[in-house]
Amino acid sequence: MTVARKINALHFGILLFLLICFFTLPAYHVGALSRIMVLAIYAIGLNILFGYTGLLSLGHAMFFAAGMYGLGLSIKFLGVSVVLAFGIGILSAAVLSALVGLLALRTAGVSFMIVTLMFAQTVYLVVLYFGEFTRGDEGFVLQQAERMLAGFDVTTEAGRYFVAFGAFSICLIGFSALVQSSFGKRLVAIRENEERARMLGYDVWRYKLLAVIISGTVSGAAGALYALLFGYVGATFASVQYSILPLLWVLLGGAGTTIGPLIGVAFMFYLIDASSAYTSAYMLIAGLALVVLTMFAPRGIAGILRTKVSPWLP
Amino acid sequence: MAAVTLLETKGLTKTYGGLQANTDIDFILKKGLVTALIGPNGAGKSTFVGMLSGRTAATSGRVIFEGRDISQLPAHKRIQLGLAYTFQITSIFTGLTVHENVALAAARTVSADGNTLNAKVHQTLNQVGIADRADQTAGDLSYGHQRLLEIAMGLAQEPRLFILDEPTQGLAETEINDFIALIRSLAGRTTILLIEHNMKVVMATADHIAVLDQGMMLAEGTPAEISANASVQAAYLGKTVDA
Amino acid sequence: MEFGPHLMLASLEGAVIASILVLTAMGLSIVFGVMRVVNVAHGEFFMLGAVLAWYVSTALGGHPAIGFAVALIVAPLAVGLVAAVSDQLILKRINYDPDRTIVGTIGMLFIIQQTTLMTFGPEARPVEAPFNQRLALPWFEFSEGGLQMIWPWGLSITSYKLFVIFAALTVLVALWLFLTRTKIGLIMRATQQDSETAKAFGVPVGTVYSCVFGLGAALAALGAVLVVPIQQAHYLMGADPLLMAFTVVIIGGLGSLPGTVIAAFLIGMSDGIISVFFSPTLAQIIATFLVAMILVFRPQGLMGKAET
């Protein structure tokens, strides 16, 4: 089998597995998987920038929040249709990521991390400041009637699962195509050796900006989807914690791999799920995982698979 | 065939703080020739080619490539016009395979079609003699092979001007001989600007030699003229000028 | 109250904020200056100092001054020790790689914060100030009878707040003497200049790094012990000092100690003054955004020199 066939087989296998899960697993896990798939889209968004381009953003929550509030506020205050609201959500994230990219890409390394962190903090504070509309930390709920996606009810367990599944399928396939394209290879080249890429005639700055925009827009789509499927919009999703979590998922699953984000989210979800029986301080698990990962397994689960078992993993 | 001017600099100057690294360099590079740029350490050779390729911003002066003023263009635009550059300190994508390294270099000029690209990569690797290592991770190659890979990345771009910054530095004697053969095989087809310390390489490959000393162009000429030039010997070869 | 006395009150509050901030930011700045790493867990070391101060003063009982005095010594030492140990256990083993250090210290942030939540609990707990007399302050005014001294109602400061300002200044002077006059301080500064050369001269760079990391954390803890009689101890209290300290270090020029002191003073004062007159959230939005823009357009900081 050629490498391209193997990769396609792997991705379709994963999607088939997720489909089978719906028909075989109990309701609790079906609900959990819907959430995992949406958050995996968010992790895919960060992975494009961090895993493939080598730019570590500590502020991706602002893009997630842009998608979430873009959808939520336009439904609540403008009364537009869900499809249009979804478009507004994605557009908000795209515009925000273009602006952030234009500014933050003037810096590199540690400064880039701090600048993205500061921009995200600004967005978070803005959400709190306009509490009259956003309801701040408390957030607001989208009513069932407001959550009909083109006549399709996403408030049922099945509706939610299949919308999440559809969106995740599109993202995974698109993501896989992106990283195997010449564009994706150039992003990896920039991650590996930026100066060499520039001296091969590539406009490094433009590629990085595109990576920020694609990454931010995908993260925003995840935010809009989350608000739509789970009916809640709140400032927590704009906080630092929601910038750190996708980083954790990507590191855990394997930065710079296509299957890493899903593995990371699923693993972390069930780890926290299991630990919540013992403690309310579940972020302790996240902290321990970050320290252990960065010390002993900086390549994550899929990264280990790639070095030990199957070097062709995309 | 009369030699046509490919690249020209006018009054090219670089100042670091108060220090003049390059002063008012007027230089003409002829098409189709191998030109060697020599000079003692700290003469400003790397600064000079840095300003040609756009890695270093010039303080003043102009760079004209194929009749076009490229002084204001950023590095990647100049590369797109047909300059290729190999680094003094080996710079490759260590985490990618040899094949991927060369493919990245070739992909900008060769059509996106996978087969054409693969053929181009294979041909280039053959040319430098490391085709059997195509699937190795570049970082695992020996130092000599990494230098060859970097040259391959330059060749794969089919440059109109190929700038090599001390390509033989750190190579073994046999590898140097292979390098000389490689440069000779390119002679006439590709214009080459070679920065080189090893006089054996210079004498074996260069059609034309330019000597830089203390940031200024000291002399230019054929290898025979330069060997006979007394001031070059004083400045560079370290010999005293005998009366 | 009229504008003049109001402004004076705001400036005094600002001076108190600046005093705490300068200690916290110096800790972050020293760590960055010597080790070239960004410690995201710095705010949690601050929080740990405050929480330990509560434990110490509660355990000792008696006059509040006893507990406070003991906490002033015990908390920074204990927090410094925790930091030095985590440096040895974690940061040293990832070779202070900038990216991995950020991820590692984010992990430490959650470990410290959540462990505190599990032991200390989610409540905010007060520590009583050792002394707390209210001192009324005079204001001068021109009126028909010439210059007059009046005592506007509400224009006052507590003796404890004056003590905080005084204590912070003392610590700064001590720190300066430590860095310039002692052998350990000299070794730290030599390592900051060039760790490779320092290593070649037989400086145990690994140990120096642990000491520096411990010192940085201890300074944050010291600031927290000073603040805890004014602001209660809480497991989430580390976030604000972290962002403020970041701001100060960036504006002062990354790693520049004099820049840090000046920036801490400016930012503490303006924070105190702005939050008296404006909505604190709006002030924070403007401040955070401005700091990001400074990093974007003047990465060497406002006081730093451009690198050539």
UniProtKB/TrEMBL annotation, chain A:
GO terms for molecular function: branched-chain amino acid transmembrane transporter activity. One of its GO terms (cellular component) is plasma membrane. It comes from the Bacteria. The chain crosses the membrane at residues 12-30, 36-65, 77-104, 110-130, 161-179, 209-235, 247-272, 278-298. Keywords: Cell membrane, Membrane, Transmembrane, Transmembrane helix. It holds the Pfam family BPD_transp_2. The keyword Cell membrane applies. This is Branched-chain amino acid ABC transporter permease. It comes from Litoreibacter roseus.
From TrEMBL, chain B:
One of its GO terms (molecular function) is ATP hydrolysis activity. SMART domains: AAA. GO terms for cellular component: plasma membrane. The keyword ATP-binding applies. Residues 7-239 form the ABC transporter domain. Keywords: ATP-binding, Nucleotide-binding, Transport. The keyword Nucleotide-binding applies. Coiled coil: none annotated. It comes from the Bacteria. It holds the Pfam family ABC_tran. This is ABC transporter ATP-binding protein. It comes from Litoreibacter roseus. The lineage of its organism: Bacteria, Pseudomonadati, Pseudomonadota, Alphaproteobacteria, Rhodobacterales.
TrEMBL record, chain C:
It is found in: Cell membrane. GO terms for biological process: amino acid transport. GO terms for molecular function: transmembrane transporter activity. The chain crosses the membrane at residues 15-38, 45-62, 68-90, 102-121, 160-179, 200-230, 242-267, 274-297. The keyword Repressor does not apply. InterPro entries: ABC_transp_permease, BCAA_transport_permease. GO terms for cellular component: plasma membrane. It is a multi-pass membrane protein. It comes from the Bacteria. The keyword Flavoprotein does not apply. Its main location: membrane. Pfam families: BPD_transp_2. Keywords: Amino-acid transport, Cell membrane, Membrane, Transmembrane, Transmembrane helix, Transport. Belongs to the binding-protein-dependent transport system permease family. LivHM subfamily. This is Branched-chain amino acid ABC transporter permease. It comes from Litoreibacter roseus. The lineage of its organism: Bacteria, Pseudomonadati, Pseudomonadota, Alphaproteobacteria, Rhodobacterales.
